Each structure stands twice: as structure tokens, then as C-alpha cells.
TrEMBL record:
Protein name: 2-methylcitrate dehydratase PrpD
GO MF annotations in UniProt: lyase activity
PANTHER family per the UniProt record, alphabetical: 2-METHYLCITRATE DEHYDRATASE, 2-METHYLCITRATE DEHYDRATASE-RELATED
Annotated family: Belongs to the PrpD family.
MmgE/PrpD C-terminal domain sequence ranges: 243-392
Highest taxon of source: Bacteria
InterPro entries: MmgE/PrpD_sf (IPR036148), MmgE/PrpD_sf_1 (IPR042183), MmgE/PrpD_sf_2 (IPR042188), MmgE_PrpD (IPR005656), MmgE_PrpD_C (IPR045337), MmgE_PrpD_N (IPR045336)
UniProt source species: Ornithinimicrobium tianjinense
MmgE/PrpD N-terminal domain sequence ranges: 6-209
Chain spans, region Disordered: 361-382
């Protein structure tokens, strides 16, 4: 039994529970809202170009996945460090735009494969510099598309194997357009692989086993040996971002906000000290950011916006906000101490914060679970507020959160973001 076939068999046998379907509905709402927030983003011409070069169905998946990821506000599967929905929701909507039940089931099957494969790739894969959303995303996209196209188990395993040449992507892309482009390319690769398998293409399913070993994964991981061993479609659930930046910044921002209790002026702060396990800052590669994209991957800038801004929303991560004199000053005052650890992921251990103020006092705090994490899920009000903010940013008028469903998702994305020929 190959890994590709084991995952294919599991995906085809999946019978979603009420909890699975609730997760699918939240993921759909979150992903479509975040994609719509990018409706006026400067990267739109790039997304259009990627779509045009990818083919009709693959092009829609690529366009929508790229735009769902570019502002880094999409959900995250913690054990695999992958943005599952930014790949799997666009593919499901692109390939099954008129069948809500099929699209939701295809999403859950692909999301489950992405969670299992990504978890088997492990934290070591991520800390080696791979972009796990794209490495695990391409095979998962093939499963989503394959389920939607009605492939059988052999064809589905073939489709997964056919994505191996596209199952790449590196963290050096972070802070540039290439990060979201990689995600769009992974989504398109999965759709093309499923279409090729449907047309009769052949491949050796053992290609996925070989690839997994080459990129440092564990072929014997329990979730691959027995994918049904965990009854949840997506083991451990998904984290929803509260702040539109890398997930590694959610906890530091939350810790500083809870510690200080409100915005301060730059001249009130004399020092900022953050202590966190080394592995929890792996994607935070920009220490002196000069652009909004770089700010999304900067621990130092996270400290600045957490203290200066009443809400670290979209504006806090644009070029103008990062270039503020007050923000630049606080970036320079931030000291980061990395302790040993972090091997369990971005939420390993806790982040400890200290802020020295000009009045001679020091405020201290510690946080292990940020808002929106799987064990601290967003409330209905938090989700609604996030969706409304996204729609406002994208200039989408006259739409309420309740109107974003599996039945309407493809039409909304097509209208606001564009679509190819079907």
C-alpha cells in the first residue's frame, strides 16, 4: 500500500460529521472573505497572469488561492504549519462551483489529506526552509479536484503522484509576491493533475513515498499508515488569524496587547523585551522591515504595532505604517531572546514580554494561546467583524457574512476577482 493510495482510499471513504461540516463552513467563510479583501490588491494583474497561463479550471483555482493568501489572513493547521483552506477552498469552488455539498465534501477530503501529509512532513521540514503550504498543498489540491471530478481510488492516487514535480516552495519567498504565487501554483498543479488522471494519465504512486523521504518527512507516520486512525477530517482543527500577518506574530501581538492594555505613544516606551522558543520565530525573517509585506514577517515590527495601534488590522501592515517614525523607533528598541525549544511548532511554550516605560515602571506578561487558536477559537462576533473588515478592504459592498456560503462562493469570487472560461 503506497501513501498516495492510502490517502486516496481514506478521502473517498470520508463521511463528514456535523463537526467536520461546521469546520468546512467556517473555512469557506474565512477564505472567501480574505480573498475578497484582496479585490483591489496591487497583485491582481499577477493573479490574472497566473490564471491565464494555468488553464480554465486550474486558472480559477490559482487566481483565487493566490488572492486568498496574499494578505496573510488565512487560517492555519498548527501541526503541519500549513494554510490548508487557502489551497483547498479555491480548488473546491473552482471545480465544483454549482454543487455545494460536493464542494464541501471535496474540501474536507483535501483538507484532511493536507493535514495528514503536512503533519508527516513535520516541523523539521518547515524549519529546513520549505513552505509547507505548497509542498503539502499540491497533493491535497489534487485530492480536492479529484473528488469533485469523480475519480476512483486508482485515479486519485495517480493524481497525487502527478503533483510531485510541483510539490515545492521555500520560505525565502516570504515577504515577496512569490509566497502567494507559490500557493496559486500549488492549487493549479493539483487541478491539472486530477484532469490528467481523469484523461487516463499514468504515474507510479510510489513517487509520493520517495518525495516524502527526500524532503525530510516520515513515511511511517501513524496518520499516513492509518489515515482513518483520527476520526476528524482535519485532526486538531484549524487556527483562525485575528491579525492579518504571519501566524507566528499572533501570539506576540496578543501578549503585548494584554500586557500593556492599550495603545501607547512611542516616547512612553524605553525598551521592549520578548523571550520565546527559537523554533517559534522560524518564518520571521525580517528584523528591520521597510515594506508592509516584510512587516508581516517581522517580530520587531509586531511589537511596534501591538503597542502603537488600537487594532493591528490591515492598515497596520501596509508600507506607510511600517515606515512610521514611531514604529521605526520601537523596532529599534525591541530586544528578542530566543530560548531552546520550539520543536513542537509555532505555539510551543509561551512568549514572555516586558515593556519598560518612561515613568520607570515595567509591565510584564506571558501568553501561550493567542486568540483564534484551535483551543481558543474565534467567537461568532470575532468572525463577523473579520469578514466585515475584509469586505470593506476589498471594496465589496452590499454583502453580509450570512450570504457567503458554499452555494454562493464561486459566483462571489468570479464576480469580484474574475474567472476564466468554464
Amino acid at each position: 500500500m503506497t501513501i498516495a493510495r492510502a490517502l486516496a482510499d481514506w478521502a473517498l471513504a470520508l463521511e463528514p460529521t456535523a463537526e467536520d461540516l461546521a469546520l468546512a463552513d467556517r473555512s469557506l467563510l474565512d477564505t472567501v472573505a480574505v480573498a475578497l479583501a484582496a479585490a483591489t490588491h496591487p497583485i491582481r494583474p499577477v493573479a490574472d497572469a497566473l490564471a491565464e497561463t494555468s488553464g480554465p479550471l486550474a486558472g480559477d483555482a490559482a487566481r483565487w488561492a493566490l488572492l486568498a493568501h496574499v494578505i496573510d489572513f488565512d487560517d492555519l493547521h498548527m501541526p503541519s504549519t500549513t494554510h490548508i483552506s487557502t489551497v483547498c477552498v479555491p480548488v473546491a469552488l473552482a471545480v465544483a462551483p454549482d454543487d455545494a455539498d460536493l464542494a464541501a465534501r471535496a474540501y474536507l477530503a483535501g483538507a484532511g489529506v493536507m493535514a495528514r501529509l503536512g503533519t508527516a512532513l513535520g516541523w523539521g521540514h518547515y524549519t529546513s526552509g520549505w513552505h509547507a503550504t505548497t509542498t503539502a498543498g499540491a497533493p491535497a489540491a489534487a485530492v480536492v479536484a479529484g473528488i469533485a471530478l469523480g475519480l476512483d481510488a486508482e485515479q486519485l492516487a495517480t493524481a497525487v503522484a502527478l503533483t510531485v514535480p510541483a510539490a515545492g516552495g521555500v520560505q525565502r519567498a516570504f515577504g515577496t509576491d512569490a509566497k502567494s504565487i507559490q500557493v496559486g501554483m500549488a492549487a493549479a498543479a493539483g487541478v491539472r493533475a486530477a484532469q490528467l488522471a481523469a484523461a487516463g494519465a499514468t504515474a507510479d504512486p510510489r513517487a509520493l513515498d520517495a518525495w516524502l523521504t527526500l524532503v525530510g518527512g516520515d513515511p511511517g507516520h501513524p496518520l499516513l499508515v492509518d489515515p482513518a486512525g483520527d476520526p476528524a477530517a482535519v485532526p486538531d482543527g484549524l487556527a483562525v488569524k485575528v491579525y492579518p500577518a504571519c501566524y507566528a506574530l499572533q501570539r506576540p501581538i496578543g501578549a503585548l496587547r494584554e500586557t500593556v492594555g492599550g495603545p501607547v505613544t512611542a516616547d512612553q516606551v524605553t525598551a521592549i523585551r520578548l523571550t520565546t522558543p527559537r523554533g517559534t520565530v522560524t518564518p520571521l525573517v525580517h528584523h528591520d522591515p521597510s515594506t508592509g509585506l516584510e512587516g508581516k514577517f517581522s517580530l520587531e515590527y509586531a511589537a511596534a504595532t501591538a503597542l502603537l495601534d488600537r487594532h493591528s488590522g490591515f492598515w497596520a501592515f501596509d508600507d506607510e505604517a511600517v515606515a512610521r517614525e514611531d514604529a521605526r523607533r520601537l523596532v529599534g528598541l525591541t530586544q528578542v531572546t530566543l530560548t531552546e525549544g520550539g520543536g513542537a511548532g509555532l505555539l510551543d511554550g509561551a512568549v514572555d514580554v516586558e515593556v519598560d516605560l518612561a515613568d520607570g515602571t515595567t509591565r510584564r506578561g506571558s501568553l501561550d494561546l493567542p486568540p483564534g487558536s484551535p483551543r481558543r477559537p474565534p467567537t461568532a462576533d470575532e468572525m463577523s467583524a473579520k469578514v466585515v473588515d475584509c469586505l470593506d478592504l476589498g471594496g465589496v459592498e452590499g454583502l453580509t457574512p450570512d450570504e457567503i456560503t458554499w452555494a454562493s462562493g464561486a459566483a462571489l469570487l468570479s464576480t469580484q476577482l474574475g474567472a476564466g472560461r468554464r
